[in-house]
Design goal:
This protein is an alpha+beta fold. It has eleven helices and 14 strands.
Length: 439
């Protein structure tokens, strides 16, 4: 039926489309689907997000050695387990409150185990192998070897903190009305006032030439990745944004590979929408992009700017906070800035637990732990004069440059007694009931 006159026309309410549509065959989860602030002509203002809920996620285990061991009296050991691989074990005697404890930190190829055990709970003081079993029952080795290298702590803390990053790079994609393909998204050149306002909200626009901060893979010498970008220092974490409209545009290249080379290799990206056109996460073909935060603006460039937010990520990415409010609408404010950047960083941490990145981290961890083990072993052997030339060792030859070899060959009996006394006291700390060395 077609209306014959204007009077016959019946207006139908315009349907508001969601910010995100999930792909037809799944593979993604979504957060933040309600953006209705009320049906009145003057919608309610969104409530501010509680600051207590905006919390940066971090790998708490990675900081334990620096916090509790580094620069303090402790002992390090190493061994090899047939199932757990190379092991590096740190032991520290701690007094917490008025109780004595053992703080144990065991690194295997799979993970790092940490525990604090009251000594009063132990029937007898354990040896090192027994201590390792306290923190990980699967340990199956006959003995641990003491680390004797003076610079061992530097190597160990470097290994523990290899998972910590204070540098982040995120994509920012501008989606205009009715754009539903990757080619259209990466083909945008102009920045509307609303998008420019959002970029200014995200961070500072910086000149790339000779930029001294974290560059996120952008060229700061020859201008091959554009002349400017958006950067922000967030709680001592440096963030470089790969903005689609600021990366070089190549005439005749429908795929805009210069732009996709950077944004397609990010793990998390923001999609900015000025009008009501849904984003489908499989629009962009990328092996790396695992999460998108979609932001749609209302009342742009006024004193009543609102941002609707939805989040989507691949199915194997665990949920990450801070959780979106209901409805998921924010006023343009410092609180929303804090929320958004926290959500971006937490998204990247969470994406790293997805299968693709978790396997990559496993391989990296295995290689780094093997290297750490070898360095601790070789340098510890060298300290007692066993490293280096095998022929000299087999023939009983010289090469007596090890610390303990020099000590044993010393003619200063008083010096020898003093050093052995110190070693005895340290050994007694760990094995008071089994220490039968007489000085």
């Amino acid at each position: 039926f077609l209306p014959q006159t204007e009077e016959d026309y019946i207006p139908y309410p315009q349907r508001t489309l969601p910010l995100i549509l999930l792909p037809q065959f799944g593979g993604y989860w979504i957060e933040g689907t309600n953006h209705d602030l009320g049906s009145s002509s003057t919608p309610e203002e969104p409530p501010p997000c509680p600051a207590s809920q905006v919390k940066l996620e971090m790998n708490s285990i990675a900081n334990i050695y620096r916090t509790h061991f580094l620069g303090k009296e402790h002992f390090n050991y190493y061994s090899v387990d047939s199932a757990l691989g190379h092991l590096v074990f740190s032991v520290k005697y701690d007094v917490i409150g008025d109780q004595e404890h053992l703080r144990l930190l065991l690194r295997s190829k799979f993970k790092t185990y940490h525990d604090v055990i009251p000594i009063s709970c132990l029937t007898e003081f354990p040896n090192v192998v027994q201590m390792a079993k306290l923190v990980c029952e699967e340990v199956n080795v006959d003995r641990f070897y003491p680390v004797l290298y003076p610079k061992a702590s530097r190597l160990i803390v470097t290994f523990d903190e290899h998972v910590i990053s204070n540098n982040f790079k995120f994509g920012v994609i501008y989606q205009k009305f009715a754009q539903t393909s990757e080619e259209e998204l990466f083909g945008n050149n102009e920045e509307s006032p609303a998008f420019a306002e959002f970029l200014e909200f995200l961070g500072e626009t910086i000149e790339l030439h000779d930029f001294k901060g974290f560059r996120g893979g952008l060229d700061v010498a020859h201008g091959q990745t554009g002349s400017e970008s958006v950067y922000h220092n967030f709680h001592n974490k440096e963030i470089m944004f790969h903005v689609s409209t600021k990366l070089p545009y190549t005439e005749g290249d429908t795929q805009q590979l210069q732009r996709k080379r950077h944004i397609g290799n990010d793990i998390v990206a923001i999609v900015f929408q000025e009008e009501n056109t849904p984003f489908v996460p499989d629009m962009i073909a990328s092996n790396f992009l695992h999460a998108y935060i979609v932001v749609q603006v209302e009342n742009a460039c006024t004193d009543k700017v609102l941002y609707k937010v939805s989040v989507t990520a691949r199915d194997d990415v665990p949920f990450f906070g801070p959780a979106l409010p209901d409805p998921a609408v924010f006023k343009k404010s410092p609180e929303f800035h804090e929320f958004l950047l926290t959500k971006l960083i937490n998204a990247e941490y969470s994406c790293c637990k997805a299968e693709k990145f978790a396997k990559l981290e496993e391989r990296t961890r295995f290689a780094l732990l093997e290297t750490l083990y070898e360095e601790l072993h070789v340098n510890s052997q060298s300290m007692i004069g066993l490293g280096g030339d095998d022929d000299k060792l087999e023939n009983g030859g010289g090469g007596g440059s090890g610390f303990f070899e020099v000590l044993v060959n010393s003619r200063d009996d008083f010096f020898v007694i003093c050093i052995l006394s110190i070693l005895y006291m340290r050994l007694e700390l760990l094995h008071p009931k089994k220490c039968d060395i007489k000085v």
